[in-house]
Every structure is written in structure tokens, then in C-alpha cells.
Automatic annotation (TrEMBL):
The keyword Transmembrane helix does not apply. Residues 3-137 form the HTH marR-type domain. One of its GO terms (molecular function) is DNA binding. This is Winged helix DNA-binding protein. It comes from Martelella alba.
Amino acid sequence: MKDEDLHRLLGQLRALQRRQRRERPPVEGLSQSAVRVLGVVARSESAIQPTKIGRELIMTSSNVASALSALTKRGLVERIADKVDTRRVNITLTPAGKRLVAEDRASRDDWLTHAIHDLLTQEEESVLIAGGFILERLADYHPEPPHTRAMGYK
């Protein structure tokens, strides 16, 4: 892909993300950081440790702790002591947290659903779906470290 095409694509993806954020109503009483932390906990297949949340969001431990404190006070997440190492805590959604995440996703997706329905032809929808699979492949790409490629290791 040419550099100019890559830059155009990146700009288009950022524009769509910005638009989705603008169309999403704010969650009253929660910072954007707390909403992002809530999203990571929701996407986690099981309880998740705060350090993993910080790594995924590239947030400092103090910012994660602050967001978790706000989410805990609102009854959206709960902290559970790790069964193996009681010094560690795991974070899970409460039923109220699950409801809020479901409502937030529905409101966030509502704008995009309407935009796709109102603007795209069936053929364009098919192209968009195919493009989504390609973007997913790119997101899952983890190149081998250069030293293993040079040695011919797999």
C-alpha cells in the first residue's frame, strides 16, 4: 500500500472513531477513562487484574485505580481477591455494570446502524463487511521478532 493511501485510510478510521464518540451520549457521573476501563472489563472473558487493564489501555496504575474506585462506588464493578494470591485483586462487572455496558453499546451502535442503512447500498454493505474481516486480521497480526525471522525459526 502506498504511503498516501495508508495515511488516508488511517485518517478515515480516526474520523469514524471520532464521530462514534461524538454520537455516544456521555455516561453521567463517569469520566471517559472510567468508561474505557469498564469496556475492558466487559470485553474480558473472565475476571481481569488492574495491571492488565492498564496495559491494554496504556494507562498508568494510578489512573486505573482512580477509574476503578469510581466504578466500584457506582456499583458497576467489584473487586474479588485472587484465589491463588490474595494480595492481588480481580475485577468483574456487577449486574448493574453489565446493564450499563449493554445500554452504552446499544446507543453507540445505533448511530452507525442508521448511517449504514441510510447511506449504503447492499453492495457497499457487503464491501464494508469484507473490509471488517480484513481489519480484524490486521488487528490480530503479531510479527515475529526480527532475530527469529533472520534465523529461520518459526
